Amino acid sequence: MNIGPHYRWNMHVQGWLMVLPAVVLLAAFTHVPAVATFIDSFYSTPHGAKPSHYVGVAQYSGMIADPIFWQALRNNLLYALITVPVSIGLALIMAIWVNGKIGGRAFLRLAFFTPTILPMIAAANIWLFFYTPDYGLLDQVARLFGMRGVNWLGNTTTALPSVMAVTIWKESGFFMIFYLAALQQVPPDLYEAARMENAGVWQVFARITWPLLMPTTLFVAVNALINAFRIVDQVIAMTGGEPNNTTTLLLFYIYQVAFSFWDSGYAAALSSVLLAILGITALGQFFLLDRRIHYR
Questions:
Q1: Distance between alpha carbon 28 and the CA centroid of its chain, in Å?
Q2: Cα(270)–Cα(250) distance, rounded to whole angstroms?
Q3: Is residue 191 part of a domain?
Q4: Does any domain span residue 128?
Q5: What are phi and psi of 130, to 5 degrees?
Q6: Cα Rg for the chain, rounded, in angstroms?
Q7: Phi, psi at residue 148, to the nearest 5°?
């Protein structure tokens, strides 16, 4: 049966009309603000009656000479380097555990997922109680074993890892849901064939489970990376970037520049750099991981 050009044209029009609301919302709240921010980065910050004017790459030149920017960038890279793989690893372990036939499986799934539904400010305040010197839960447990208390958020050595722990605790349960859904889509015939061949647990995981989970891993890795670079609320609630800027991350520094220092031009330049870092890293993840992905 031949389909006429008029029918094909109607199908294209209907398809575009269906996605039009999503396209409009995406453009209005994502692409247009991103382009506007990039344009604003080439202009100075208006002050009172003094309007902004074109300054070229002066904002970016100042960024190169800004030591706090470089410290925030190093902190954020370290933050992503640790929280992303640890969150993904824990999520995978939890998903494999609660996917098995164990007692209390529903309770375990709920327990692992519960931190995800908490607002980040609420989660940060819970962990503030854990980290409170002398009276916090961690110091009370340490005292039972004869150890001295630690100022977890006031020490330059432990402050950033303490903030990382909150992110890992909160995100692992969220990523577990995606892995759990992917595990339930793996054909049972593959596992039965592996058992018939006397394959070990690690062989089954390496040859069957992990390759079939790679599309989910790519999705989770990109989201985890984006989350690692958009952390701001828990830093505000827990440390305010202290001590000595050891917990200052890029988005928090952008927040400070824009709303504490009222330098919208420099904040726009910082935002543009952050978007560029995220875009380049996400593309790199796609190109590196896509070669190892098995689509079904």
A1: 23
A2: 8
A3: yes
A4: yes
A5: -65, -40
A6: 24
A7: -80, 155
CA 216 to centroid of chain Cα atoms: 15
- For the entire predicted model, the pTM comes to 0.85
Q: Which residue has the tokens 């070669």?
A: 291
> Looking at residue 182, which CATH number applies to its domain?
1.10.3720.10
- Residue 85 token pair: 């793989």
Residue written as tokens 């800027």?
A: 245
Q: Is residue 192 part of a domain?
A: yes
At 254, which helix (H) or strand (E)? helix 250-255
Contacts of 191 (CB under 8 A, 6+ apart): 204, 208
5 is a domain residue: no
State how far the Cα of 161 lies from the Cα of 126, in Å rounded to an integer. 16
pLDDT band at 198 (very low <50, low <70, confident <90, very high): confident
Please give the tally of structural domains in the chain.
1
pLDDT per position as a tens digit, 244-278: 899 999 999 999 998 888 888 899 999 999 988 88
- Mean pLDDT value across the chain: 86
CA dihedral 80, 86, 89, 93 (to 10 degrees): -150
Q: Which domain holds residue 275?
A: 65-290
Confidence of residue 168 (pLDDT cuts 50, 70, 90): very high
